[in-house]
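PROTOCOL LOG
Step 1. Enter all chains and additional molecules of the complex.
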Amino acid sequence: MVKVVAEGRDGVLSRAVAILRALAAAGPEGLRLSDIADAAGLPKPTALRFLRNLQGEGLVEDGPSGRSYRLGLDLFCLAARAGNPSNLRDLGRPAMLRVAAAFEDTVFLLVRSGYDAVLIDRSEGVLPVRSLTGDIGGKVPLGLGQGSTAILASLPAGEQEEVVRHNLSLIRERGGLDEAALRAALLDTARKGYCDVANGLIPGSSGLAVPIRDRTGQVVAALSIGTTLERLTPERRAAMAEMLQREAAAIGDASNPFDPALRRPGASLQGSG
Amino acid sequence: MVKVVAEGRDGVLSRAVAILRALAAAGPEGLRLSDIADAAGLPKPTALRFLRNLQGEGLVEDGPSGRSYRLGLDLFCLAARAGNPSNLRDLGRPAMLRVAAAFEDTVFLLVRSGYDAVLIDRSEGVLPVRSLTGDIGGKVPLGLGQGSTAILASLPAGEQEEVVRHNLSLIRERGGLDEAALRAALLDTARKGYCDVANGLIPGSSGLAVPIRDRTGQVVAALSIGTTLERLTPERRAAMAEMLQREAAAIGDASNPFDPALRRPGASLQGSG
DNA sequence: ATAAAAGTTCCATTTAATGAAAACAGGTGC
DNA sequence: GCACCTGTTTTCATTAAATGGAACTTTTAT
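Step 2. Run joint prediction.
Step 3. Record the structure below.
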């Protein structure tokens, strides 16, 4: 059971969001009232009232098992237009399609969010590649996986150090690199301009990624290719790296350099994953 | 300016959601306080308080223009796990990839939501096809476009009639079929088992779609291919229809037949599109 | 059949939301 | 440089609305 109690915070909104987060953590089967009340740290009557209101708004719907609740379709529709900072998703879409078409491998677009990277778009290649972020909307700590590492490697030294310190244990927990290997990878990435994961967490999986910078030079996102070890021949690797860098530069040039959300961690640092 | 006033409803939640809907309707540039207050029908101080709270939760973030607000990344992450009724998105993913790989055209997965169909997943083909729903999370009235029409054609007679009456004007407004043509298309779709749009709204665009039924026979979704007129040769059309039907049947067999969200319109009927 | 657990309703209490008014910031034109 | 306008923010007395304990009902397990 994942606890999503709105600790410290108060207000109706925090409680409602706590319920939504509990439901988000629960998958498509949904959660029963008691579980929700427990997870959100609310008395059952209160949780019930909230669920009814949320249901009235379409943000929550009845689960498959009758006596359960889950996130509703309306929430999905509502949020589909979010997660597009500086219009990055729209700007990146054509580039992603071009890269996917050129190499027939899966392409990912990740943006930074505090200590994490969030997958905001994906374009499938010929073979289905599972990404570390899971589905679109998923988070990985910066430093785990090629896209995420490409972002981390391009941060200013002080910020990079802070993130490394914060994320190291999380990265280890999830089977990523240890400190020495990570620091080596960061240097290598910074030197070459792209991150190269020869043989990733899933045996045989490999990938390449480049940072995307806005016109001020700030790293805001990463463009990443996921493929397999055997498909990543030296010739293809070189061609991929070249194309990724070209496309990333084009995206960066088109992006708005004055976007506060892409600057510093800010308020939304309590990364849940 | 799109008004999203929480008419009739009350409670803190409705107001917060009204603000989110206003922001969702506004695109990535965001909205200023006054516009939000206006759109949500709230006094400015109240709107401001809500925005601050929502920002604290990560559901809203500062827009690019400094003095503006837009939907936040956290909302995107939160809702990414929604919009998966009966696990349909997960169940459909492999089928979509197979179809996309087989024909190299774009594949769509739509679910019904009241009088609308919502695009919940997409797999890109070799040429980018713009769908009527816009992006993932977008809505179209049932009866506009092949996927949406495949669903409508498969509804029980009474329900179909209700939806047709409700949607006809909306469909016309958006350049769709008139009543006679729509009814002919519905009959044709029901007879053949798939919906065939020879030359769609965008000149030259064409598509095929089949309904997805759960094990009780209820239509719950549609699997759709978007392509161009010249790529839709008779041979390919036959092969596509056959494969779509096969894959749709497989998805339907795997889906949970006791899912309340997929039964009737229910409470979330105030379709905004 | 019985017990235990989950869900639901009720309502007196209290907290927290509300929004008018007023102060404040930041442009624009004179 | 000053007055003006528009949009934003703070304050605070008022009031409405959220709260959750206790009691009751339904469902599930034994």
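Step 4. Note key features.
The CA atoms of residues 260 and 266 of chain A lie 9 Å apart.
Chain A touches chain B through 70 residues (CB under 8 Å).
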